[in-house]
TrEMBL record, chain A:
<comment type="function">
    <text>Catalyzes the isomerization between 2-isopropylmalate and 3-isopropylmalate, via the formation of 2-isopropylmaleate.</text>
</comment>
<keyword id="KW-0456">Lyase</keyword>
<keyword id="KW-0100">Branched-chain amino acid biosynthesis</keyword>
<dbReference type="InterPro" id="IPR015928">
    <property type="entry name" value="Aconitase/3IPM_dehydase_swvl"/>
</dbReference>
<dbReference type="Pfam" id="PF00694">
    <property type="entry name" value="Aconitase_C"/>
</dbReference>
<comment type="subunit">
    <text>Heterodimer of LeuC and LeuD.</text>
</comment>
<dbReference type="InterPro" id="IPR050075">
    <property type="entry name" value="LeuD"/>
</dbReference>
<feature type="domain" description="Aconitase A/isopropylmalate dehydratase small subunit swivel">
    <location>
        <begin position="54"/>
        <end position="100"/>
    </location>
</feature>
<dbReference type="GO" id="GO:0003861">
    <property type="term" value="F:3-isopropylmalate dehydratase activity"/>
</dbReference>
UniProtKB/TrEMBL annotation, chain B:
<dbReference type="InterPro" id="IPR006251">
    <property type="entry name" value="Homoacnase/IPMdehydase_lsu"/>
</dbReference>
<dbReference type="GO" id="GO:0051539">
    <property type="term" value="F:4 iron, 4 sulfur cluster binding"/>
</dbReference>
<dbReference type="InterPro" id="IPR018136">
    <property type="entry name" value="Aconitase_4Fe-4S_BS"/>
</dbReference>
<dbReference type="GO" id="GO:0003861">
    <property type="term" value="F:3-isopropylmalate dehydratase activity"/>
</dbReference>
<dbReference type="InterPro" id="IPR050067">
    <property type="entry name" value="IPM_dehydratase_rel_enz"/>
</dbReference>
<dbReference type="InterPro" id="IPR011823">
    <property type="entry name" value="IsopropMal_deHydtase_lsu_bac"/>
</dbReference>
<keyword id="KW-0004">4Fe-4S</keyword>
<feature type="domain" description="Aconitase/3-isopropylmalate dehydratase large subunit alpha/beta/alpha">
    <location>
        <begin position="7"/>
        <end position="286"/>
    </location>
</feature>
<feature type="binding site">
    <location>
        <position position="360"/>
    </location>
    <ligand>
        <name>[4Fe-4S] cluster</name>
    </ligand>
</feature>
Length: 165, 421
């Protein structure tokens, strides 16, 4: 599957408190969470982004709280993919579990700037920066995680496991 | 090749003799923990997974602690969703308001986690229980739902970093100062995906409360877990409360670490992490003269009775600066009652402090002490991210109970040495 979108670039250590501030954690509704996505570091983001846009971060994206509402807010806002140099571990698990595509690719993250047009081939992990004419290769996911990703996330994966019992 | 304590615990729960860092394994956790923010989403996901019953209702704790007593109608709905689920599923360890506490202080104090356990919690500070010698880590709500449904979870075996703490601690230097100092050394991703193993003569002499504080903040260095091998101090704590048999593990002398860091703690001063990352650690002497509007003493990091005793010792016979709001939050009902019995609550109220029922409230900008634009707090909590305690243009400085109490009295960030010899 190929994704294409405009880049929103942020720095290192984008934490889950700025992705979705705790004052909004009194709901589990994705649309309500999406309305406040990244509000505390970029109030313009939700207003100005288009469906399919791509968030690019530096090191340790999604650090801090375990709140799954963070990747849920990003996905429900219409973001197609998050590319970063590295991800904090709980955010990494949560993103895979809920089916938010994430890409670990330091080169692509460093090369991209806000507004760039980027194309991502999720099957091969190839990231093409259309604006700058560069191509980058992401780290492949371990086979174990591919099973969950290919199942469409952890919910369908567990459904299948429970049905087998 | 020998194994670390973390490898040994994980191997035992995966039905294996040994495991290697980087391996993906399926483990059967001994205990699961979630709260009123993470459980409601997990309950929905459990339903979508088609799980009608949890794997074992006696191995799950559900603790309303973030937004209770309910701050508004929406948070009341969330707490109710968890309460209804707990009743329907006969969850043994559901703790209602009046019995509850901040989960990471409550769960070990109730003897629900012990040495050698694997504990999975839908909260990032689940790493706290490493202080009793358990492997303990935080996950999100869908992972938690899967663990409730299946009684198992996939984990990648982490590499370990060993921190050998030597030297003699200066007066007023606590576990909080040590962990802020360590995060300052390695950064907020210095232990990403890794187990942080704390050892050495300083740890051996450290009380349980300080050990909990240190393991609690492993996540603030990106750690998957923090752990301290059980010793006599651990056993004295655990034996007084354990609800289940436990198993003691220790790292082999030839265990493999990605890094072994020797830290001379004699040189560590009371430490403050300045906005907006916990890695911005500075000796308190370098941040004096920063005026504060609020001081918060509490949280899963520093709301234990030992923390309150230290704060009360400084506040006794003194007054909180008139420009400062002091908020003190005992971490559990038992801690609260003990603080009443020892006269600590009287000391706080006499000094002009507000004392609250247990809640995570202000730590995450939820309620009970949210900051306005431009306001600044010193807090014994664990995160000082942008907007963490309220307005995105407010600031949080992280410190120990002693530094927070001294700062409340002086109206600015201060060392306890300025008040007490």
């Amino acid at each position: 599957m190929t994704l294409r979108g405009k880049v929103w670039k942020y720095g290192d250590h984008v934490d889950t408190d700025v992705i979705i501030p705790a004052r909004y954690l009194d709901t589990t509704e994705p649309a309500e969470l999406a309305a406040h996505c990244l509000e505390d570091i970029d109030p313009a983001f939700v207003r100005s982004m288009s469906p399919g846009d791509i968030i690019v971060g530096g090191e340790n994206f999604g650090c801090g709280s375990s709140r799954e509402q963070a990747p849920v807010a990003i996905k429900a806002a219409g973001v197609s993919c998050v590319i970063a140099r590295s991800f904090a571990r709980i955010f990494f698990r949560n993103a895979i579990n809920i089916g938010l595509p994430i890409i670990i690719c330091p080169d692509a993250a460093d090369a991209a700037g806000t507004g760039d047009e980027i194309e991502v081939d999720l099957a091969t992990g190839t990231v093409r920066n259309v604006t700058r004419g560069t191509t980058h290769q992401a780290e492949p996911f371990p086979d174990f995680l591919r099973q969950i990703i290919d199942a469409g996330g952890l919910v369908p994966y567990v459904r299948q496991r429970l049905a087998e019992r | 090749m020998g194994q670390t304590i973390t490898q040994k615990i994980l191997a035992a729960h995966a039905g294996r003799d040994q495991v290697r860092p980087g391996e993906f394994i399926i483990v059967r956790p001994d205990f699961l923990v979630a709260n009123d923010i993470t459980a409601p989403l997990a309950i929905k996901e459990c339903d979508r997974m088609g799980a009608e019953r949890v794997f074992d209702p006696d191995r799950i704790a559900l603790v309303p602690d973030h937004y209770v007593p309910n701050r508004d109608i929406r948070s009341a709905q969330q707490a109710k969703a968890m309460r209804d689920f707990a009743r329907a599923q006969n969850i043994k360890y559901y703790f209602e308001v009046g019995h509850m506490g901040i989960e990471h202080a409550l769960v070990p104090d109730q003897g629900l986690v012990g040495p050698g356990d694997v504990v999975i919690g839908a909260d990032s500070h689940t790493c706290t229980y490493g202080a009793v010698g358990a492997f303990s880590t935080g996950v999100g709500s869908t992972d938690f739902a899967a663990a409730m449904a299946l009684g198992e979870i996939w984990l990648m075996v982490p590499e370990s970093i060993k921190f050998e703490l030597t030297g003699t601690l200066d007066t007023w230097v606590s576990g909080k100062d040590l962990i802020l100092h360590i995060i300052g050394l390695i950064g907020v991703d210095g232990a990403r995906y890794k187990a942080m193993e704390f050892a050495g003569e300083v740890i051996a002499a450290l009380p349980m409360a300080d050990r909990f504080t240190m393991c609690n903040m492993a996540i603030e260095a990106g750690g998957k877990s923090g752990i301290i091998a059980p010793d006599q101090t651990t056993l004295a704590y655990v034996d007084a409360r354990a609800q289940r048999p436990y198993q003691l593990y220790a790292s082999d002398p030839d265990a493999e670490y990605t890094e072994v860091r020797q830290i001379d703690c004699s040189k560590v001063e009371p430490t403050v992490a300045v906005p907006h990352l916990p890695e911005n650690a500075k000796p308190v002497s370098e941040v004096r003269d920063v005026a504060i509007d609020q001081a918060v003493i509490g949280s899963c990091t520093n709301g234990r009775i030992e923390d309150l005793r230290i704060a009360a010792g400084i506040l006794k016979g003194r007054q909180v600066d008139p420009r400062v709001r002091l908020i003190v939050i005992p971490a559990t009902q038992e801690v609260y009652l003990q603080a009443v019995r020892e006269g600590l609550v009287e000391t706080f109220v006499d000094a002009g402090g507000a004392v609250s029922t247990p809640t995570c409230g202000p730590c995450l900008g939820g309620h009970m002490g949210v900051l306005a634009e431009g306001e600044r707090a010193i807090a014994t909590t664990n995160r000082n991210f942008v907007g963490r305690m309220g307005h995105p243009k407010s600031e949080v400085y992280l410190a120990s109970p002693a530094v927070a109490a001294a700062s409340a009295v002086l109206g600015r960030i201060a060392s306890p040495k300025e008040l007490c010899s």
